[in-house]
TrEMBL record:
Keywords of the record: Hydrolase
Key word GTP-binding present: no
GO molecular function: magnesium ion binding; phosphatase activity
NCBIfam families: Cof-subfamily (TIGR00099), HAD-SF-IIB (TIGR01484)
Family annotation (Pfam families): Hydrolase_3
Protein name: Cof-type HAD-IIB family hydrolase
Signal peptide (from-to): none
Highest rank taxon of the organism: Bacteria
Length: 257
């Protein structure tokens, strides 16, 4: 059997709209591992935000922060933190605009302000509570991703920084990442460690932060509930997450034969 490595996004891919794992997805992931395939996570989330899910699915390799922090079998193999000078300038500009930020390390996240409705709204959609306040957290730890909280259109001024890029994931929140970072970059590092060819790499996703990943891998599988721009890049469009989309794609692509 030809060994594959299969990457799964979390929100809207592994997790349904209620942030639950469909039973068919659990069974399919277990079957993929039993057939000798490598199964890994590729997410925009920080490692501490999906630790329980990794334990539940017995997965020990992952790409987090949209590619900035890569772990293979519980060993960190790649890190790409944001520049601290850029973060200082970013914080200064955000405070002038009255836009809160959340700084994220591999261990924790801290907000630049106290309770804020936009932070509560967007983090609540992931079933996370409002982070504690520590304006200077970026000075204390490596920061791999920063969350900016503002309405659509209000984030244009942040594009002045050449070494970052913005990816909106919520109506009131945008990811801030190193400009050279993506899930595809993270996959390259993990694939090199596995010494596995691109044609044997599969990835499942549904959002804007999956664009580079789906375009890069040998077979890009896009969920039926995905954004239209991602579907345009798909090698295979499966059913939505809540209609057993992962199981359907794995069966149709013959990954369990």
């Amino acid at each position: 059997m030809n060994e594959k490595v299969i990457f799964f996004d979390i929100d809207g891919t592994i997790l349904d709209h209620d942030k639950e794992i469909p039973l068919s997805t659990r069974d399919t992931i277990r079957s993929l591992k039993e057939h000798g395939h490598h199964v890994a996570i590729a997410t925009g989330r920080a490692p501490f935000m999906f630790e329980d899910l990794r334990k539940e699915l017995d997965i020990h390799s992952f790409i987090s922060f949209n590619g900035q922090y890569v772990v293979f079998e519980n060993e960190v193999i790649y890190e790409n933190p944001l520049n601290k000078n850029t973060l200082a300038n970013l914080l200064d500009f955000a405070e002038k605009e009255n836009h809160p930020l959340v700084f994220m390390s591999e261990e924790n996240m801290m907000a630049t302000t106290g309770l804020h409705p936009l932070i509560e709204q967007s983090m609540g959609s992931l079933k996370f509570t409002h982070p504690e306040q520590n304006r200077n957290y970026y000075l204390e730890k490596n920061i791999y991703q920063t969350l900016l909280f503002c309405e659509k259109g209000q984030d244009k001024g942040y594009q002045r920084y050449e070494d970052i890029k913005l990816i909106r994931w919520h109506d009131v929140s945008t990811d801030i990442l190193p400009v050279n970072g993506s899930k595809a970059e993270g996959i390259k590092h993990l694939a090199k460690r596995l010494n596995i060819a691109k044609e044997n790499i599969y990835a499942f996703g549904d959002g804007l932060n999956d664009l580079e990943m789906i375009e890069y891998v040998g077979t890009g599988v896009v969920m039926g509930n995905a954004v239209d721009s991602l579907k345009e890049l798909a090698d295979f469009i499966t059913k939505p997450v809540d209609e057993n989309g992962i199981q359907y794609a794995v069966e149709k692509l013959g990954l369990l034969k």
